[in-house]
Design goal:
This protein is an alpha/beta fold and about 425 residues long. It contains 17 helices and 14 strands. The strands form two sheets. The chain has an eight-stranded mixed sheet with strand order 3-2-1-4-5-6-7-8, sandwiched between helices. It has a six-stranded parallel sheet with strand order 11-10-9-12-13-14. The chain starts with 6 loop residues before the first strand and ends in an 11-residue tail after the last strand. Bound molecules: uridine-5'-diphosphate-glucuronic acid (UGA).
Length: about 425
Amino acid sequence: MATEREQVGVVGVGWVGLVTATCFAELGHGIIALDVNEEKVESLRRGEVTIHEPGLSELLVKNAERITFTTSMDEVLDATRLLFCCVDTPPTYSGDADLSRVRSVVQQLPEDSEHALVMKSTVPSGTGASIRRDKPDLPYVSCPEFLKEGSAIEDFMHPDRVVIGADAGSEDAASAVERLYEPLGGEIVRTDVASAEMIKLASNAFLATKISFINEIANVCEQTGADVTEVARGMGLDDRIGASFLRAGIGYGGSCFPKDVSALKQLAGNSGYHFQLLNAVIEVNELQKRRVISKLEKHLGSLVDKRIALLGLAFKPDTDDMREASSLVLSARLQGEGAKVVAYDPVAAEGASSMLPDVEMATSPESALSGADAVVLVTEWPEFAELDWVAARDSMASAVLIDGRNYLDAETLRAAGFAYEGIGRPDAQNGA
Ligand code: UGA
């Protein structure tokens, strides 16, 4: 189906869709990218990217001639046979994935074998089978995405693996997808659709489990005087465990882990299986965001009228994404205790202000810290490691620092006069 230089259709230009479109264009393919949001399409036509993703804007501008943005599905269907579905599947109130946008894309496709649908959106296992029941002649490929926000282009261009799931009748479409990804060099996993769908959900759920596991170890370390960063280092050197995703902190957030862990739990439940482990993973993550409160109270007593500065709001660095960010729960808990919250984030502050109407947004880390009774590092933006912490201490009402990501050097901060506490690290009184 695909030739050396394919015309590729991308439906939905959110994070995954825009990165997919831009990176395939960089590989030399022509792209026709559709979104229902006219405003977004207009700004992309002008080369303006509305999300913060390192390198994306530059790569889009570089490949502008190869990418056409449109709101017309007819235009896409005329121009291409291979359609990558990249629309979002947000969680519903029940915790299931909302497939309405996926269904709307499928409805618009003709019932023929001329086009093929390649599913990049994260969907529950069984979605491909149900789409094929509705459109039996439509070739269907499951090709889940594993890129991380903040390093999306690097992840797309250098994948650990590319999963391509197809059932009988869709082999040609699967081979066309394989040819698109071959130049990237990652291991290609050809499998059936249901398994491909499960690989995606299971991978995210496993990584979230790793994070909740190390967070619980961190909490135990606080009882025993061990240092979780040392524990993670020692564990991670075992090849069977691996060093990544063992950073303890104030919990995982973002548009994927919370949604996908819950979707897998519901998927299991809907088919009659109680996925016990994931309940614990979710609960640990919820509680982890709140543990900062007791750490602050230990130093400050009551938080009523205390001014607490949050450094970072985004769910992780190098993104302006606020979805399920730990800062949302943390700031609400602090306000619930009567504290005044001031925050600084280098890129997320503007988008975050409507979600956090009662949080004072500072324009620099220094102004956030000035007069604060305590500071909590929420997102590990590199600029926070470069701060003049001695000057910061002098500007604060009291020098309490809770490092929610174990990002700063404890000894340097203590030498600067801070009462420094990380997550799962011994405090000074314990004799680190
Ligand atoms: C995640 C997966 O890592 C990607 O493989 C996947 O493609 C993506 O979801 C998705 O399904 O679309 P992402 O949500 O962009 O990517 O971000 P991660 O880097 O995985 O971080 C997720 C959260 O976990 C962040 O809040 C981060 O601070 C937290 N985290 C990560 C930890 O608390 N500890 C760690 O050791 C690692």
